[in-house]
Amino acid sequence: MKQRKDMKIFIVGGGGIGKALADQLSHDGYLLTLVDKDENVLTNLSNSMDIICLQGNGASYTTLKELNAEETDIFISVTDSDEVNILSCITAHTLGAKHTIARIRDIDYAKQNKFYKEKMGLSMIINPELATAMEIYRLLRFPLATRVEVFAKGRAELVEMVLKEESALHGKSLIEITRGMGINLLICAVVRQGEAFVPKGDTVLQSGDVLYLTGAADEFKKAFKKLKLPVKPLHSVMISGGGRIAYYLAEMLTQHGSKITLLEKDINTANILAEKLPGVNVICDDALNYFDSMSQSDVQHTDAFIPISNDDENNLVAAMYAESQGIGKVISRISTKSRLKVLPAESRICTVSREDVAADRILGYSRSLLNAKGADAVESLYRLMDGKIEFIEFKIDEKDKNLDVPLKDLKLKRNMLLACIIRDSKTIIPRGDDVIKAGDSVLVATINSQINSLNDIYVS
Questions:
Q1: At the top level of CATH, which class does the domain 4-126 belong to?
Q2: In sequence order, what E strands does 247-348 have?
């Protein structure tokens, strides 16, 4: 198995996604080279990160040959051009790069994924806008959730939520919750006053705690109903901004029966969306102007508001106004995390970043490639609190140690936890007598550490 310092990673494109990737990969200790045409972009990146920055055309055969792209373990192209990304990856693959990853946004190109993978050698294709829309859609299912991720092909979920003082969980220990409340979920990580830790049985939950819960997808609604937490179907959703994320999200929500109002300031874009989304009420207007024209009854009957334009400031201002009007679920797109400082501490506004969503998907795939023989392939990776907390889904094979050993007999390293086991179609909340078998998928929670295989969680 290769060590990180020996893994050569090549990134073409130093924009938002490229920067987010470079930041995390360099922090993780990989040998990283980034290529971009813009000298200013490269200067800013080289001043803030320990990476090799080179100016040039990442799709040029001559450039890639001169930069020894054939020695690359993972070649990633995330420029704003689908065509450049496809050509870059095909050229790198032809030269000998082991794995190639391309950002492809165009819907027509995306439909050709199978062709690009089978015939052109692309290892992975990422559509950041579609991935972001899917993340927003998952958040909308649980009004109190601030993040929802799925793993094991949708059979299990990871939910992040902030504990309120009026919650039935406030002041309860994990043992009381497990034994006395009949909730088949696992609270696998807690953030309290900015510090993350894996809770124990006697840990008493407090208001203000950020909780991370795992369990079968159908168990969350059952548990939330028992706890008298809102699980409200979304009848009316308002989206502000008419980009690709809005298009994908409106399509998803319409298919599930929600009534959608989509606001877009540009008349040409609004007309195009109205044609492509016949079931959506598309209005050419600014979000704040539209709010002024709404009756109080209309506001009260709006279940969710989602500002996802390219303007962070407008998104956040509109989100705060919507929250002040009592709209139950508000999710704002943001690209620059520093702007989150404008949100008050008690705000219920959820934020999503297209750049972070795409980077997380690519990082999960890259982490799996550390295992040269494919053991414990990383199926998915979720990074929280700027990477301080990680949830990694592993696919287990027969080479793993400690198979068929009761979990109560295993010693795990500090701040590591087996959060979930998926066996066939069954989702198991791990207890002392449970075992891990070859073929299982397992979700592992780690705090302030990174692992490459399931064996990394055990005390030697």
A1: alpha beta
A2: 259-263, 281-283, 304-307, 329-333
